[in-house]
Amino acid sequence: MSVLDVRALRKSFGALEVVRGVDLGVAPGECFGLLGPNGAGKTTTLRLCLGLIAPDGGDIELLGEPVPRRAREARLRIGVVPQSDNLDPDFTVAENLLVYGRYFGLAPREVRARTGPLLEFAGLTGREGAKINTLSGGMKRRLTLARALVNDPQVLFLDEPTTGLDPQARHLIWERMRRLTAQGKTLILTTHHMEEAERLCQRLAIMDHGRIIASGSPRALIAQHIEPQVVEVHGPAPAVEAWMALARAAAARVERVGDTVFCYADEVDGPLGTLAGHPELAYLHRPASLEDVFLKLTGRDLRD
Prior knowledge:
Strand order of the largest sheet: 6-7-8-3-9-10
CATH class of the largest domain: Alpha Beta
Number of domains: 2
Radius of gyration: 23 Å
Shape: globular
Number of helices: 11
Order of helices and strands: EEEHEEHEHHHEHEHEEHEHEEHEH
CATH topology of the largest domain: Rossmann fold
Distance between the termini: 37 Å
Helix content: 25-40%
């Protein structure tokens, strides 16, 4: 049985159709990623799945409950980490957990019993009495994650959970998310960090213009949509253009973006060998990544 089952989901705002026939299925205990450029429809899809807005068409079932008709019952077993931290600055760390627990009908004594383990999980032991405005950005984000777990949810929705964090804070949250899936919890994640999705998600879907355009495991998507080797080259324009012709002759797929050339190929010995004649060019040779797939499928143009 799926934790989340979405079929033919549609949503419009005025004349703009934001979600256009989305199908999704999330299995128990997996970390599932929903990726897409700004405006692709990801956040709207999450809000529909949580019953916060009503769909124009399609069916949603969350933890066996039809949404939005019984969304409230489903949300009692759900945790949510929103894009922006909405902690109450007038309360201490522990008071934020206590107030949030009351939304789920938890007795104060029960929330207090959970506070210590939750703060240990979030790396905030000893901060129970701290005011929110004394916490760093990483601490606030970890507290928001701990708060989402106060009702011991079966499913956790995380909307861009590490945006704006430094590498240390990001890696700590990644480790905590892995711990949650190891405990059998289901994570549904949106992120703009392709490395995050590649590291954490067993499966993911890429969304653009309101539709799902690709889905599968990160490894399978890379194998299906992109060549395995990438060479990035940049330098003076005449030398770059001369090298591009040599790379194409070596049966590589070449894409130029500004002053950088991306060379995609099954084998890159030929393109790499031609760089020896162009010492003025700098280059990076790396394996293909989920980011390469994402940019190939959704394009490199900026989205507002």
